[in-house]
Design goal:
The structure is a single chain. The protein is built from one helix and twelve strands, in the order H-E-E-E-E-E-E-E-E-E-E-E-E. About 5% of the residues lie in helices and about 55% in strands. Strands 1-2-3-4-5-6-7-8-9-10-11-12 form a twelve-stranded antiparallel β-barrel. A hairpin with a 7-residue loop joins strand 5 and strand 6.
């Protein structure tokens, strides 16, 4: 898997040409694993691919995803790959409010994994920009399981280090178990991002995932 990661990085750097809103590992635009109240613009499309590994133990996976700004304040997209195993899932996000302050607060509601039989989720999230390059996000997510509703809190931050680098961290819960993730975005140019992340790094080594990916945006 390390060799695959190396080849993958060479390829994505070699094809870099033409993103402000980057998809999460699981689809909607956001941080590492959680969606935010930031979005792609109308008629803007972003595409992403992520590879994940657990220390080369054979439990490797890959995901591809796409998001499109369809109608005013709407983002529609899908995610597929080795995970999720049920097939391709549909995601949707709608922006309820955004003020016109210098550091605005935005609110969005969304649906995740609409075609899943067991893990369809609904969420609400608020995002706030702060002076000094810090963006904060906090929200609520509920997953409709086969037998019960599974509610949890989610949140995260992004710190803009420079025009090329931002640092990210987020957390989310499922079935009363919370995971904490950390990552880095490297902007080859405003539209092309290379992403690195460590998932669930506060747990035992066996459950830690390492991710490398890329996203690219364009206007239709």
């Amino acid at each position: 898997m390390k060799r695959l990661f190396f080849v993958f990085l060479i390829l994505i750097i070699a094809i870099s040409t033409h993103i402000a809103a980057s998809p999460t590992i699981y689809g909607p635009s956001g941080l590492i694993t959680i969606p935010t109240a930031e979005s792609v613009s109308f008629k803007e499309m972003n595409l992403g691919v992520d590879l994940m590994s657990t220390n080369g133990d054979g439990d490797d996976s890959w995901l591809y995803k796409m998001n499109l700004g369809t109608f005013q304040n709407w983002e529609l997209g899908f995610v597929g790959g080795k995970v999720p195993t049920e097939g391709v899932f549909i995601n949707a996000k709608y922006y309820l409010m955004s003020n016109n302050e210098r550091f605005p607060v935005s609110i969005a509601i969304g649906l995740e994994r609409l075609t899943s039989e067991t893990d369809t989720g609904v969420y609400m999230v608020a995002s706030k920009k702060f002076q000094g390059g810090l963006n904060g996000h906090i929200g609520f997510r509920a997953i409709f399981g086969p037998d019960e509703l599974d509610p949890s809190i989610m949140g995260g931050v992004e710190y803009i280090v420079s025009n090329q680098i931002s640092l990210l961290a987020d957390f989310s819960g499922e079935r009363k178990v919370y995971t904490v993730n950390a990552g880095l975005n490297y902007y080859i140019n405003p539209e092309f991002i290379v992403r690195f992340a460590v998932l669930d790094f506060m747990n035992s080594k066996e459950s830690v995932y390492y991710s490398v990916g890329t996203s690219y945006s364009l206007f239709l």
